[in-house]
Amino acid sequence: MATLIAPTSFSPGADAEALRKAFQGWGTDEKTVIAILGHRNVYQRQQIRKSYEEIYQEDLIKRLESELSGDFERAVYRWMLEHADRDAVLANVAIKSGSKGYHVIVEIACVLSPEEVLAVRRAYHNRYKRSLEEDIATNTTGHLRQLLVGLVTSFRYGGDEINAKLAKSEADILHESVKEKKGNHEEAIRILTTRSKTQLMATFNCYRDDHGTSITKKLLDNASDDFHKALHTAIRCLNDHNKYYEKVLRNAIKRVGTDEDAITRVVVSRAEKDMKHIKEVYYKRNSVHLEDALAKEISGDYKKFILTLLGKKD
C-alpha cells in the first residue's frame, strides 16, 4: 500500500543525464529533481546513483547535498539512501538528540521486521564503525538503556501462534509494572523485547479486557520520565504502527511551528511501504486528507517533494 508512483521501466543513464543538466547553469532545476527522484523506487534510485557515478565520477548524493538546501535537501538526502542505511542515519541523529530522539529508536526497533532491524544494525556498523547497541548504551542509563538495547537486539518470532494463558499472565505482570513507578520494570522490558508481535497484541487485548482500559492509556497517565515514554511508544508501535504514525503526523502539523523533521521521517520511511494505510487512518481521525493538511503547513520545493511522495499527481 505504497503511495509512491514509479514507472515500471526507466533508463538510469537518461535520469542521470537529466539530473546533471538540472544542476548546471544558474541555479538548480528543482522541478526536474522532484519529477525524477520523486517517482523512482529504492532499486531505481540506486541504479540512477550508480549510473551517475559511472558517467560523471561523482557521488549523486553529495551533489544533491550541495545543490539543495533546508528541509528539501534533508528529505531528498534521506530518500536517496537505501532503507537500512536511512534508518541507521535516523538512529544516529536520534541518539545525538538525547531524550528528544528516543522515540525514533523505538520506532525503528518495533515497526520493522526482525530481519530489517538486523539490516539496520549492520548498516549502522558500516557507516559509523560502532554498533548501534554500543552507542545507545553509552548515551542512556538504567531501565531506559535496558529497554532500548533490548528492543534493537531483539529477533522476534514472526509467526501467528498465540499462547492465551501466557497472554493473560503477562497482561497482569504489565499491569503491576505500570500501575506504579516502583513496579517490576525488568519484567515489562523482558515481555516487550522477547515476545512476538502477535503474542503481544493478545497480551494487550487481555490487559484491556481484564483492567478496563488500554495499557497505552494507563502508561500515558504515568509517562513523565523517558523510560515510561519509551515504553508507551514501544507498545503503540507494536500494537498498530499505522495509528502511531498518524499521531506523529498529526502532532507535527498541530504543534506551534511545524515539525518538518517528523513529517520527513514518516513520509520518506513509509512512502514505499504502507503510506496509503496511514493516510486512511489520518482521514478517519481528522476528517481531512493528509495532503491537504500538509499543504497548509509546508511550502516550496519541500512541499512539492513531500506531496509527490504521497502520490499527488502533478
TrEMBL record:
UniProt keyword annotations, A-Z: Annexin, Calcium, Calcium/phospholipid-binding, Metal-binding, Repeat
List of residues binding Ca(2+) 2: 253, 255, 257, 297
Pfam families for this protein: Annexin
Alphabetical list of SUPFAM superfamilies matching this protein: Annexin
One of the protein's GO biological processes: response to heat
GO molecular function, one term: phosphatidylserine binding
Binding residues annotated for Ca(2+) 3, in chain numbering: 295
GO CC, any one term: plasma membrane
Top-level taxon of origin: Eukaryota
Binding site residues for Ca(2+) 1: 23, 25, 27, 67
Entry's family note: Belongs to the annexin family.
Domain notes for this protein: A pair of annexin repeats may form one binding site for calcium and phospholipid.
Name of this chain's protein: Annexin
